[in-house]
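Researcher: I've been going back and forth with a colleague about how Aminoglycoside phosphotransferase might be arranged in three dimensions. Neither of us has a model we trust, so I'd like an independent prediction. The organism is Leekyejoonella antrihumi, in case that matters for your notes. Sequence below.
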Amino acid sequence: MTVDSTEDDLVAREALIRYDFSARTDIRMINLSENATYLVHDPTTGRDGILRVHREGYHPVRSIESELMWLDALRRDAGVETPISVRARDGARVITVHRESRQRHAVLFEKIGGIEPDEDAVCATDFKTLGALTARLHRHARTWRRPRQFHRFSWDWDHTLGKQPRWGRWQDGIGIGIGELSHLSEVATLIGQRLRAYGASADRFGLVHADLRLANLLVDDGHINVIDFDDSGFSWYLYDFGSAVSFIEDDPRLPEWRSAWIAGYRDVATLTSEEEQMLDTFVMLRRFMLVAWMGSHSHAREVQEKGSDYTAGTCELGERYLSSSGASI
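Model: Here is an independent structure prediction for Aminoglycoside phosphotransferase. You can compare it with whatever you and your colleague have in mind.
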């Protein structure tokens, strides 16, 4: 995926006009991944905000509006603190900026206080909190009567490691040679076998955040805001654990963090022993997806930091996964 941050800036500037920000408004890009996210400050009015400029073609307007519906419902029904969207001058929550023959969508959110947990000081308590939050989202998703017009994509087998992988083919990841391809193909086959045996019944497969990790929590004076629902969609509920340990799957502290996450989850909702035994399969599923994602996101910070070492680490985890017949990594 090629990224043109200059175009993102132009789209952001044009979008802010629709929200009645002044020409003096300052924008600063704070994240560039699937989308470009900006911190916005208007010195004329004192208004602040967070503007998300969507990657072209990733979500249609209907899907973005559906994401905002879930954010509203979580705040209202489950007491989960989520970003609050701001309506444009015409009342729209999702606006479209036309660039020649192309369309880019954007959403403005109220500015949220807080900082994400320090990656260098992560402890089991953080993962217990994350597990409890995850269970609250799952509990809500299982009982929420979604509006008829609600639409989000799926992270099922076909759209993760199957025929239509949304983040690209893992086989095209960085550092995939003949040896890696042969070895990881065996691992992928075992992941698929275990997922098929586990099944996708309604109690196991539903609406999930799909990127619920510590980096997407903002902690502010005891309040925890859950952010970045852009990847939310339908998948196995326990896929959220695979997401929780993204890029740290081979950390030696993972067993401790895993236990803490489980304890936090069970404080809120049921997690059976069968489900617990599937957690490492979802870690491997997510790991393969990130190998694919890194292959097409050369601009991302994680790619710059990890590169082909991430694929090599995936091979090591895969060896342990195969040796245990998928029971552990």
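Researcher: What would you highlight for our discussion?
Model: I'd start with this: Residues 266 and 272 are 9 Å apart (CA to CA). After that, consider the following. The longest strand covers residues 102-109.
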